[in-house]
Write a structure and sequence with these properties.
This protein has 11 helices and 12 strands. The protein has 396 residues and is of the alpha+beta class. The model has no long low-confidence stretch (mean pLDDT 94).
Length: 396
């Protein structure tokens, strides 16, 4: 099998060209500014961010881009080109004021844009027309939502000339947009990596202190294979807040501010005072925080065997204790681990479908893709990924 099985990712130039053509066709003018932000894959550290733990993501080559221009109408018009977004593809809303803030509504995809506009505090904010284009798979567990939020914020920076001086505040404004508009109580990881990523590095992020450490990930002999299962079970929206509540319940039972402060010994001592499901959720989080710190240290030393072992432990914990995996993700991980040259594999993202991430020797990629394709009952998409840059404005 040839590596032609690997999906090709549209270049930024191709995405900008597509967005600009749609913009001209729809709005009758040429766009003059553009903002770009990547999706991400989390190498290890799942469901730890809202528990004040550590995460270890890298930015993907896949990005979301907004192109557009200022208008004087007081009405913002935004169009998405994504087939996966709900209808209508064109939405409009007034500029927010203190008396009349924006409110969430339909279409759902527009809530991510409106939430950022509402949280963008520059006095120079003006109405605009914009077109959204993305190569980040929607619902794939690779943070298409944060990519859209951060791309929108970056677009507004370019539009107004008012650039964030504190990148943490930019990430937090985008996180608040997701909390307030789509009503998803996400942690800080997705927005943070989309804002902060540096090419050739993964990011070890302490979600309590927001201290970020760039860890080189640029060994040409080792690659990251992202596999999209192309399934998304409908549990995600309801199960995510449930897991978060269970973690808070476990922390309260242990007398801790968050599970970041808890040890296995303390958890075992309180096992009988917790519901079995709550105990299992806490066991995953406490173990995953430890695995993430160990994993980043292993990768920094080039110990790929250890990192792969930790990836597999992470997946097993996510499947058995956190119960956010599914048959398709388990199948892909199991298939990957039969291939010589694969160090480790795990589900990535919120779960219930989406993607797996696999650390593999470059010379074994063809074997890995072939085996996973052969043993997987569904129709997966495969992407070779490199640690890419974070959000930036683009010259048109």
């Amino acid at each position: 099998m040839e590596n032609s099985t690997l999906a090709t990712v549209a270049t930024i130039a191709e995405l900008v060209s597509k967005a600009s053509s749609v913009f001209e066709e729809k709005f009758g003018e040429v766009p003059v500014v553009a903002g770009c932000a990547p999706g991400r894959v989390n190498l290890i550290g799942e469901h730890t961010d809202y528990n004040d733990g550590f995460v270890f993501p890298m930015a993907l080559p896949q990005v979301t881009i907004l192109v557009g221009r200022k208008t004087s109408s007081g009405i913002c018009r935004v169009m998405t080109t994504s087939d996966a977004a709900d209808e209508p593809k064109l939405t409009e809303f007034p500029l927010p004021t203190s008396e009349k803030p924006l409110m969430p509504g339909l279409p759902k995809w527009a809530n991510y844009v409106k939430g950022v506009v509402q949280n963008f505090k520059a006095r120079s904010l003006c109405s605009f027309d914009a077109v959204v284009v993305t190569s980040v798979p929607l619902g794939g567990g690779v943070s298409s939502s944060a990519s859209l939020e951060v791309a929108t914020y970056t677009f507004l920076e370019e539009l107004t000339g008012c650039k964030a001086t504190d990148l943490k505040q930019k990430a937090l404004a985008c996180q608040k947009a997701e909390h307030d508009f789509p009503k998803m109580p996400c942690g800080i990881m997705d927005q943070f990596i989309s804002v902060m990523a540096q090419e050739g590095n993964a990011l070890l992020l302490d979600c309590r202190t927001m201290e970020a450490t760039q860890i080189p990930l640029n060994d040409p002999n080792v690659v990251i294979l992202v596999t999209n299962s192309n399934v998304k079970h409908e549990l995600t929206g309801s199960e995510y807040p449930t897991r978060r509540r269970q973690c808070e319940e476990a922390a309260a039972c242990l007398g801790k501010k968050s599970l970041r402060d808890a040890t296995f010994e303390e958890l075992l001592a309180h096992k009988d005072s917790m519901e079995p499901a709550v105990f299992k959720r806490a066991r995953h989080v406490i173990g995953e925080i430890k695995r993430t710190v160990e994993g980043a240290a292993a990768l920094q030393k080039g110990d790929y065997d250890l990192f792969g072992k930790l990836m597999l432990e992470s997946h097993k914990s996510l499947s058995d204790d956190y119960e956010v995996s599914c048959a398709e993700l388990d199948e892909l991980v199991e298939a990957a681990m039969t291939v010589e040259g694969v160090y480790g594999s795990r589900m990535t993202g919120g779960g219930f479908g989406g993607c797996t991430v696999t650390l593999v020797k470059k010379e074994a990629v063809t074997r890995a893709v072939g085996t996973m394709q052969e043993k997987y009952n569904g129709n997966a998409s495969f992407y070779l990924s490199v640690a890419s840059d974070g959000a930036r404005g683009l010259k048109l």
